[in-house]
């Protein structure tokens, strides 16, 4: 085991092992999925089981950064808290400086720059989180970005992070249809269907947050999620009946 | 001596023997302390009365054709879930020893769930012995353990299989091992073992340490056919996926004793550590 596994310096073959290990830490967090529609952005997360005496309002995977941006993370809880706090401060600082809310891309770039700095600093380890950042710019364009421990960020139409991200992403690639994204309901259903692929015991382990154009973030309650889940199950049954005939 | 930071160190040469008189100055008290420590760290094999009765010879040696040793929580859990779940196994003995990490000194059988070294014998095929070792055996006690355990067995025709857990962080390889391959099995065998092992051999420069190494070394020296299956896993503690990695060993085990069909997921979960619902490290 050489020194380049303990701190973030290059290995002889060009790897940054600490960054790659940080990506493994992300896979230990539960799944989060994000879908960008035409007039709505949706983030769905798998709720992790919490202790009986724990207040579940304090175990949040979806955090609002400002009125027009929110994110979901996967990975080390404490690292996420630090990053989210810094992002929130930056959002307000931006508002006070330029009198406009941040664009989604701006705050994503800000978060990514922090993460990248920790991959180049002496003695510090990278942040062990990936995040999905969604929101609307002030001109009404919706965005979905994904950031990684390495400090890279990319825009996506739909993506997943965390434990079973690969399975969910493959599902999204198979079932994402551009024309469906016009309908808010279809966007929400796509996110829920993707999560149902990997979540144990169905709808009660899903938490969903949506933001429609010119509205603030809304976290759906259990009844609403159940309605969508029932609709999805009905559609599945009908599709199977059709297949048989 | 040259150092990185420029300070001067005076170093003693090992070519010149320092005074050995110190050892002769050892007085009775020192000797007594040394003896007490040795006694304290002695390894005892406790065979239960029904076993010692059934053996006719003076010193207890058991007829044994196959010895299966499980070292570590996952290996032991695998044996408990897949092999010991039938009612045809009798507890026949345990090892009592003391070291800083293990205080299984009781001459009484250990309670279930406690870390210990237990021996089981199959009722229908009494020459098949199983050993589950979940307690820590210190380096200075390893030789004694292997010596005494094998000393209690008639070595003729003995075959040994060892299952052992190891953290994957100790696995040295030039390739990246990200997620997909873990947990996995590697094997090592003594020269007398002529069959094919059920998984790839352990590659250099990886080594075995601890009790599995002591057992395999003993088997090599005494020309006993032995095969060891080391499972590299990234989970601390007993875990169902890791236990299932030992399944290839079932093919050899099923030739020795009748095994129940695969245990249900619930049965497996009993042996695995309760998952960290309370762990807030990752969200």
UniProtKB/TrEMBL annotation, chain A:
Residues 3-25 form the Proteasome alpha-type subunits domain. PROSITE patterns: PROTEASOME_ALPHA_1 (PS00388), PROTEASOME_ALPHA_2 (PS51475). The gene is PSMA7. GO terms for cellular component: cytosol; nucleus; proteasome core complex, alpha-subunit complex. Belongs to the peptidase T1A family. It is found in: Cytoplasm; Nucleus. It comes from the Eukaryota. Gene3D superfamilies: Glutamine Phosphoribosylpyrophosphate, subunit 1, domain 1. One of its GO terms (biological process) is ubiquitin-dependent protein catabolic process. The keyword Disulfide bond does not apply. The keyword Nucleus applies. This is Proteasome subunit alpha type. PANTHER family: PROTEASOME SUBUNIT ALPHA/BETA. The 26S proteasome consists of a 20S proteasome core and two 19S regulatory subunits. Keywords: Cytoplasm, Nucleus, Proteasome.
UniProtKB/TrEMBL annotation, chain B:
Transmembrane segments: none annotated. The keyword NAD does not apply. Keywords: Chaperone, Coiled coil. It holds the Pfam family PAC1. The keyword Coiled coil applies. Residues 16-43 form a coiled coil. One of its GO terms (molecular function) is proteasome binding. InterPro entries: Proteasome_assmbl_chp_1. GO terms for cellular component: endoplasmic reticulum. One of its GO terms (biological process) is proteasome core complex assembly. Belongs to the PSMG1 family. This is Proteasome assembly chaperone 1.
């Amino acid at each position: 085991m050489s020194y380049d596994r303990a701190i973030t310096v290059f290995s002889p073959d060009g790897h940054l092992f600490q960054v790659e290990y940080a990506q493994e830490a992300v896979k230990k967090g539960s799944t989060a999925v994000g879908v960008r529609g035409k007039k709505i952005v949706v983030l769905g997360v798998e709720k992790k089981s919490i202790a009986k005496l724990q207040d579940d309002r304090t175990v949040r995977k979806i955090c609002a950064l400002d009125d027009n941006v929110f994110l979901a993370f996967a990975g080390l809880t404490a690292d996420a808290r630090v990053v989210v706090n810094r992002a929130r401060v930056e959002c307000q600082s931006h508002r006070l400086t330029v009198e406009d809310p941040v664009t989604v891309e701006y705050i994503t770039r800000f978060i990514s720059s922090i993460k990248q700095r920790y991959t180049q600093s002496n003695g510090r380890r990278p942040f062990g989180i990936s995040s999905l950042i969604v929101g609307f710019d002030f001109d009404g364009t919706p965005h979905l970005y994904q950031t990684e421990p390495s400090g890279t960020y990319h825009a996506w139409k739909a993506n997943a992070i965390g434990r079973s991200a690969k399975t969910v992403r493959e599902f999204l690639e198979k079932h994402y249809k551009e024309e469906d994204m016009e309908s808010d309901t279809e966007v929400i259903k796509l996110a829920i269907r993707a999560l149902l692929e990997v979540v144990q015991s169905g709808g009660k382990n899903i938490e969903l947050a949506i933001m429609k154009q010119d509205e603030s973030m809304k976290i759906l309650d259990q009844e609403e999620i159940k309605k969508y889940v029932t609709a999805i199950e009905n559609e599945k049954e009908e599709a199977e009946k059709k297949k048989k005939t | 001596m040259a150092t990185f930071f420029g300070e001067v160190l005076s170093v003693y040469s090992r070519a010149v023997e320092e005074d050995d008189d110190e050892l002769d100055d050892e007085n009775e008290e020192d000797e007594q302390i040394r003896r007490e420590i040795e006694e304290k760290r002695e390894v005892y094999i406790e065979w239960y009365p029904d076993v010692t009765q059934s053996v006719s010879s003076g010193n207890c040696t058991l007829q044994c054709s196959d010895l299966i040793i499980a070292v570590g929580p996952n290996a032991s859990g695998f044996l408990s879930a897949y092999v010991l779940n039938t009612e045809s196994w009798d507890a026949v003995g345990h090892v009592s020893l003391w070291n800083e990490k293990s205080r299984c000194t009781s001459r009484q059988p250990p309670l279930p769930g406690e870390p210990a070294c237990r021996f089981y014998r199959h009722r229908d095929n009494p020459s098949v012995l199983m050993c589950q070792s979940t307690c820590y055996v210190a380096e200075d006690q390893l030789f004694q353990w292997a010596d005494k355990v094998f000393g209690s067995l008639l070595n003729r025709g003995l075959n040994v299989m060892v299952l052992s857990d190891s953290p994957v962080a100790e696995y040295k390889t030039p390739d990246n091992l990200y997620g997909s391959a873990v947990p996995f099995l590697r094997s090592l065998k003594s020269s007398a073992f002529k069959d094919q092992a059920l998984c790839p051999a352990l590659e250099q420069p990886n080594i075995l340490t601890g009790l599995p190494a002591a057992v395999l070394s003993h088997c090599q020296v005494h020309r006993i056919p032995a095969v060891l299956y080391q499972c590299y896993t990234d989970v601390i503690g007993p875990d169902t996926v890791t236990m299932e990695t030992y399944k290839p060993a079932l093919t050899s085990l099923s030739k020795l004793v009748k095994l129940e069909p695969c245990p249900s997921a619930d049965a497996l979960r009993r042996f695995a550590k309760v998952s960290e619902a309370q762990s807030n490290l990752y969200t």
